[in-house]
Design goal:
- The complex is a heterodimer of chains A (about 110) and B (about 110).
- Chain A has about 110 residues and is mainly beta.
- Chain A is globular and about 40 Å long.
- In chain A, a hairpin with a 7-residue loop joins β9 and β10.
- In chain B, a hairpin with a 6-residue loop joins β4 and β5.
- Helix content of chain B is about 0%, strand content about 55%.
- Chain B starts with a strand and ends with a strand.
- Chain B contains no helices and 11 strands.
- In chain B, the strands form 2 sheets. In chain B, strands 2, 4, 5, 9, 10 and 11 form a 6-stranded mixed beta sheet that branches. In chain B, strands 1-3-8-7-6 form a 5-stranded antiparallel beta sheet, with no helix packed on it.
- Classes of the chains: A mainly beta (about 110), B mainly beta (about 110).
- At the A-B interface, β4, β5 and β9 of A face β5 and β10 of B.
Chain lengths: ~110, ~110
């Protein structure tokens, strides 16, 4: 299994540009999440999904959109990039086992200039 | 009040030392608790779950105090490879809430 994969690894955007951060998991997990992590801060939940076709807002959803058309994919869309969206973005999926483990992708480092 | 609060550290300890730190959580209905480890600029990885009775995993011991709403992590016989940021994580319904992390540096 590849686990959780994210693309791209790095990206620089200009203010007002749009982009989609891709996230794919091959573990057949129902739960998927998008977080952002600013320097020296904890992870903040942007959006999450409990299954294909179901998404919900997290703590900091403004400026982002998501979709979940398949179990495997959970892309995050930035419509009008702003400098405040400069951050590291992590996608994760979760399995409901005894450990309730959440598996993270390697992250996308985004800079908005 | 933040959902999960941690002492940011840093804790700077020599090899072989014992280091311990806590975190507190605000939601008394929280269901599950975890410690994650995050190396510099990498993704978080599960270190261990925290059970009500306390649990050990090798040199790591985790404790949960539901009455006082805090979780602790103790690392015995510290190794250089233990240098990392340790994230306290709490599960509420479908969502995990993360502390900002406690940085531990183990020196030779």
């Amino acid at each position: 299994n590849a686990g959780v994969t994210q693309t791209p690894k790095f990206r620089i955007l200009k203010i007002g540009q749009s982009m989609t951060l891709q996230c794919t998991q091959d573990m057949n997990h129902n739960y998927m999440y998008w977080y952002r992590q600013d320097p020296g801060m904890g992870l903040k939940l942007i959006y999450y999904s409990v299954g294909a076709g179901i998404t919900d807002k997290g703590e900091v959803p403004n400026g982002y959109n998501v979709s979940r058309s398949t179990t495997e994919d959970f892309p995050l869309r930035l419509e009008l990039a702003a400098p405040s969206q400069t951050s590291v973005y992590f996608c994760a999926s979760r399995v409901r086992d005894r450990a309730d483990t959440q598996y993270f992708g390697p992250g996308t480092r985004l800079t908005v200039l | 009040r933040k959902e999960v609060e941690q002492d940011p550290g840093p804790f700077n300890v020599p090899e072989g030392a014992t280091v311990a730190f806590n975190c507190t959580y605000s939601n008394s209905a929280s269901q599950s608790f975890f410690w994650y480890r995050q190396d510099c600029r990498k993704e978080p990885k599960l270190l261990m779950s925290v059970y009500s009775s306390g649990n050990e995993d090798g040199r790591f011991t985790a404790q949960l105090n539901r009455a006082s709403q805090y979780i602790s992590l103790l690392i015995r016989d510290s190794k250089l490879s233990d240098s990392a940021t340790y994230l306290c994580v709490v599960l509420n319904d479908y969502k995990l809430s993360f502390g900002a992390g406690t940085t531990v540096t183990v020196r030779a």
